[in-house]
Amino acid sequence: MSSFVLTNLVVTAGMLTPGLGTAGTLGWQVTNQSVNVGINFSNANKSIPLSTSTIVQSYLLAVSASCGVALGLNALVPRLKSLSPNAKVIAGRLVPFAAVATAGALNVFLMRGEEIRQGIDVYPALSEAERRRVDTGDMEVKPLGKSKKAATLAVGETALSRVLNATPIMVLPPLLLVKLQKTEWLKQRPRMVTPVNLGLIFTTSIFALPLALAAFPQRQAVSAQSLEPEFHQRGGKDGMVEFNRGI
């Protein structure tokens, strides 16, 4: 995840390039989903190992979804005759956002679908004294079992965080670029369009990623009563249980 800003800078700049044809749109959507698969696989809960066939299937489904949304919206925008030319330009620039947000969330569910089907490890919540004992090696915490409800919550929150991250990155730069391209300074310097676009994407990414990751805690704590009956009355501190949401 620490490499996300730089890798996403290249991919987002490619997807937001004005006037992309069908081949360019497909190429950048495939590249984006390839990066997403790597990130989601590396930052999953890891309670359930993923087979190679599952990874390949998830990858192909995510790529198909993103390409379908992107191409479908690209074909739809020119047919919206009620929109002004300027509105069509803005709508066209926002097509990559719709594709990225949809496929990004779907990618998380596909890559981590086994967690929902089989459940993830759930642990009793610890007091501060117990945490110190664990840190010193005097105490070992074993999982209470695997919970499908915890897995659904973990994967759902992670998918939502991907949408929260993509929204400012894919919306603000293209809208700001439309405005900036109307200024005399940029009109006289067309070669600066790409560097300005990259600067906008980079700046937005630096702030968007930490906020999106912080929207939900990685070490999630919930009431044991909210999970399957087998976990009721088995919580730790304050009747809570914990699990690794992933990022």
What series of H and E elements makes up the topology?
A: HHHHHEHEHHHEE
> In what range is the share of β-strand residues?
5-15%
Q: How many distinct beta strands?
A: 4
Main sheet makeup: 4 strands, antiparallel
Task: Give a written overview of the molecule.
The chain has 247 residues and is α+β, with helices and mostly antiparallel strands. It has helices spanning 4-15, 22-42, 52-76, 85-111, 113-118, 128-136, 148-180, 184-187, 193-214; strands spanning 120-124, 145-147, 219-223, 240-244. The protein has one domain. It has nine helices and four strands.
Topology:
Layout: H1 4-15, H2 22-42, H3 52-76, H4 85-111, H5 113-118, E1 120-124, H6 128-136, E2 145-147, H7 148-180, H8 184-187, H9 193-214, E3 219-223, E4 240-244
Antiparallel strand pairs: 1-2, 1-4, 3-4
What is this entry, summarized?
The chain is of the alpha+beta class.
Please describe the structure with a list of short key phrases separated by commas or semicolons.
247 residues, alpha+beta, 7% strand, elongated
